[in-house]
């Protein structure tokens, strides 16, 4: 692969397409964000909030492209909810997962990996916890998890543009890259004897903690690849926690020394 191709691939990976009239206007009015392009349905009438969106884009010299509804839906991937408006936002904190991305901090690094977390609100809340806890990053395989869209941006309370995020295509690809770096792969299991607090406090090797599907948990393939199974201590006969709550606990547990 040429350096130009890699640079283009990285640039596209760092792009988030946000749809919906109000979310798009908020993106355009936030001058801390790097706006790439504004996409509008050619059926939109230039009045009301659409007029405000166009004015905000023009004031920032953002390129405006017009599409028919079918073409726009291929960009938003949600014709029912895009309201004829999509904006491409560059996120410098979002990069492609690679050996190099993990290598610099592999001895002490701590990451979360999402394994089929399909609820956008949960993904957004997990991103917020990753940003707040200050861990090395969140690994998101695109084919197995909720898309990074307006719902995720809203649920993250804007921290999507502050949390270090590493993207790849599949969970199996992520596992392969993680294994080549010799990192621990820890999955949560209610029956596990070792808990996440004692493990995070004593283990000296970089670790990737896997957060599984909301109802089915971590996939069988990922469990087979895991080097550790950890539990979150719970009382009063509570059997499980929401994945976003569990991720928040894990993220902060990794910071205990």
TrEMBL record:
Residues 17-95 form the RNA 2-O ribose methyltransferase substrate binding domain. SUPFAM superfamilies: alpha/beta knot, L30e-like. InterPro entries: Alpha/beta_knot_MTases, Ribosomal_eL30-like_sf, rRNA_MeTrfase_TrmH, SpoU_MeTrfase, SpoU_subst-bd, tRNA_m1G_MTases_N. Coiled coil: none annotated. Pfam families: SpoU_methylase, SpoU_sub_bind. SMART domains: SpoU_sub_bind. The keyword Methyltransferase applies. One of its GO terms (biological process) is RNA processing. GO terms for cellular component: cytosol. GO terms for molecular function: RNA binding; RNA methyltransferase activity. The keyword Cell membrane does not apply. Keywords: Methyltransferase, Transferase. It comes from the Bacteria. PANTHER family: 23S RRNA (GUANOSINE-2'-O-)-METHYLTRANSFERASE RLMB. This is 23S rRNA (Guanosine2251-2'-O)-methyltransferase. It comes from Umboniibacter marinipuniceus. The lineage of its organism: Bacteria, Pseudomonadati, Pseudomonadota, Gammaproteobacteria, Cellvibrionales.
